[in-house]
Amino acid sequence: MLCLLLPIVGKANEIEHDISGIVDVRLSYGDTIQSYVDGGLGKFRFSPNETLSLGQLGGSLNSQWSESWSSHIVVNAYADGLENNIGFTEARLQYRDIPNEDGIRLSAAFGLMYPQISMENIATTWSSPYTLSYSTMNSWIGEEVRHLGASFTVETLGKYRQSKHDFSLTSELISSNDTTGAMLAWHGWTQSSRQSLHQQRLPITAIPAMAEGGKLAAQAPESNPFIELDNQVGGHVVAKWTWLEQGQAQVGYYDNNANTLIVKKGQYVWHTRFSHIGTKWRLPYNIDFISQFMTGSTLMTSTLGEPVVDNDFASFYSLFSKKWQRHRLTARFEDFSVTDKDSTPYDDNNEQGHSITLGYQYQIERPWFLHLEYNYLDTTRSARVYLGESVDLQEQQVQLATRYFF
Q1: Which of 351, 339, 352, 276 is nearest to 310 (CA)?
Q2: pTM: predicted TM-score of the whole model, two decimal places
């Protein structure tokens, strides 16, 4: 559909294309256990010991088809020894009107997209300019909170009223996200820099409940994060206030409106809902401050409606970042949890944890950066006992990366 519309939109105008992207090569060393990417319960993207990898090769093609119509396509590739792959992470057609005399502007988007939540993943290809690893909240969004759908926004721009305050309200219709919540339930919160590719399948940690005769034996060994099973449309709404040159705040609610009575080819439908709130502010001494909080629930049932996996979850982070000349220092502090409310045997998803991330970035040239980062995670997760590992675990990771933005 997107391919058919674009030539029509741009037919009468000269089409403008802009390409941007990132090349991220990194060396990592972790004192941890088998990574969640490899089906383990380690919280970091990389498994133990030293790893040299292509952390991200991302490209974004932005095409302006007319004064109001454009498209945005993102391709990402990874080569980290665990799940080497390449594929689409975003592909959408966008409409953005010219503001009227009162400063009211309408915009819309259609296609494969992220919900408008993250306040730290603001660089090209949904990367973060602050840290190598995303917060736990945005790591989960990058893994399985994406959808096919439509987004509609109305904005009121303050400059038309001689004001520094902008306001916007966005409503999103979401589909192809029926398994959202599965990975959060079965491996918990993670700290990563991976975005699931559209064709990708995510390995599920093998727990006793999924063995033959277990209550979850019908579950496929991999989750398909971008599948539509119940033909129901969910929604996401977010309101945002921006104080120009000072900061912004937002609040939103997400509900995938899923019918949990459906299971097809080992893929269960999960009903996932959450609220989120966030702020971004410029503090004294030009310190950037970002903080976001998310709380919600996810439910998977049998075809008879019996709760099988029923979890509440929450994640909070605060990030401080100071940039001067060629240097940037960043510190992020997090707290997160999963509360298991069901009684399914051998499927205990309870989790408590907190995290500290410290990063230093040096700008070699304008698009080329050297980045050193330390990550510390302290978690308690009951399911580790199924794998013969410690329920209480402190994990550490050091990453050295060279990142080139183009």
Answers
A1: 339
A2: 0.94
